[in-house]
Amino acid sequence: MQLCDHRFWRAEQAGVCSGFGGMAKVHYTEEELRSRLTKEQYRVTQEAGTEPAFANEYHENTEDGVYHCIVCDEALFSSENQFNSGTGWPSFDAPISNDKIENRTQRKWFITTVENVCANCDAHLGHVFSDGRTTTNARYCMNSASLNFVPKAEIPAGANDRADEMETSPN
Predict the structure, then answer these.
(1) Taking CA atoms, which of 7, 19, 68, 93 is between 20 and 30 Å from 26?
(2) What does each of the 171 residues of the chain score in pLDDT, given as a tens digit?
(3) Is 6 among the domain residues?
């Protein structure tokens, strides 16, 4: 089994390989990613960067819809689970499904954090914190640069994005 960690992925090995648990992982060449992602999206998703708080696209988004991975287009978070954490980044109390996100423990400077990556392509998304701000006790603090928001009205009926389950909020 070949383990696919995006930080050790070589551009010439693009394609699909087996990751942890034998799940197929989608990988792209560095050239392809640099050509279709902005510099900020590449830095955040491929180099585990963090965008500035309050200066990102989705931290105040209140529209109904689904957030997809900017790299592989996997549906990750629903606006149903989004809340204003006051941190300046889009925050959620849960992903659409636990198998959409992988958690990786990071230890740096005597601090332990839990990094979230897309389970489909290993793109860095953000971090999850257990700080009791929600009923799930989880705050998934994501980088807007790692996400693409699809409004509910643009999601085809029956798509596996939970959009068909979302209630229309009065605006």
Answers:
(1) 93
(2) 223 443 333 333 334 443 444 457 888 999 999 999 999 999 999 999 999 999 999 999 999 999 999 999 999 999 999 999 999 999 999 999 999 999 998 887 788 889 999 999 999 999 999 987 788 999 999 999 999 999 998 887 766 555 444 444 443
(3) no
Is 65 part of a structural domain of the chain?
A: yes
Catalytic residue among 4, 118, 121, 141: 141
Q: Is residue 167 part of a domain?
A: no
Give how far the C-alpha of residue 113 lies from the chain's centroid of Cα atoms, to the nearest Å.
16
141 counts as catalytic: yes
Contacts of 111 (CB under 8 A, 6+ apart): none
Domain limits for position 122: 51-159
Looking at residue 73, its amino acid is D
Claim: this prediction has a pTM higher than 0.70 = yes
Residue 115 covered by a domain? yes
Place of tokens 């807007």: 144
